[in-house]
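To illustrate the input format used throughout this study, we show a single complete record. The first block contains the structure-token representation of the backbone; no residue identities are included at this stage. The design step must infer an amino acid for every position from geometry alone.
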């Protein structure tokens, strides 16, 4: 399913319960930026959604990946060679040691803590370990929008029982990002949260889940 969030931002929401895949997001500015392309064998769905807005994979200039699990990064090797790919340095080092997470693509650049400019868009990269050691969230201050990867969802938290996961680090990471000025929460799985009150209420809800971790 494709949803236009803003004039220049599209959400490709994964709604097929029979297969696990992540939500993919497209920023359609002077540079075409794809966030989390998903599984390699399900990349056709991204291509289909791009075609609905008269784009192809060849039009994608940059791919930003929140973490190295296959349902987020698996499609990277099938992207055009001209497309530049970014992942956090610590996450790349981590997945390089786990055979089932390893992919055949070294990042063109690293998404480490701090600001990064891509075309006319400025992002703040926030290191948010917990779901995986090098997970990041991507904050777009201009739009007050946070791409959370698998840190936090609509009424849910990322799992910590996979290799490199840490419950305490996940809690710390949630507390780190909830202080941001956020109007839109774009999660790696599930629904979009729009509106400051809805975002704040969701953070209040997920904090209550900490006692079960």
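Output of the design step:
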């Amino acid at each position: 399913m494709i949803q236009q969030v803003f004039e220049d931002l599209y959400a490709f929401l994964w709604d097929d319960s029979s297969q696990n895949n992540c939500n993919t997001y497209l920023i359609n500015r002077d540079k075409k930026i794809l966030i989390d392309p998903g599984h390699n064998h399900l990349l056709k769905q991204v291509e289909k959604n791009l075609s609905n807005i008269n784009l192809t994979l060849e039009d994608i200039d940059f791919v930003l990946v929140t973490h190295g699990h296959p349902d987020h990064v698996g499609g990277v090797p099938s992207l055009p060679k001209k497309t530049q790919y970014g992942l956090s340095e610590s996450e790349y080092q981590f997945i390089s040691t786990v055979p089932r997470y390893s992919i055949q693509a070294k990042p063109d650049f690293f998404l480490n803590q701090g600001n990064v400019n891509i075309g006319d868009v400025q992002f703040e990269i926030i290191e948010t370990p917990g779901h995986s050691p090098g997970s990041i969230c991507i904050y777009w201050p201009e739009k007050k929008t946070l791409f959370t990867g698998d840190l936090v969802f609509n009424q849910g938290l990322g799992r910590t029982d996979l290799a490199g996961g840490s419950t305490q680090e996940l809690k710390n990471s949630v507390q780190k990002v909830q202080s941001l000025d956020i109007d839109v929460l774009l999660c790696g799985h599930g629904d979009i949260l729009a509106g400051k009150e809805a975002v704040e209420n969701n953070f209040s809800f997920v904090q209550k889940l900490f006692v079960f971790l």
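Structural context for interpreting the output: Residues 2-212 form a domain with the Metallo-beta-lactamase; Chain A fold (CATH 3.60.15.10). The radius of gyration is 16 Å.
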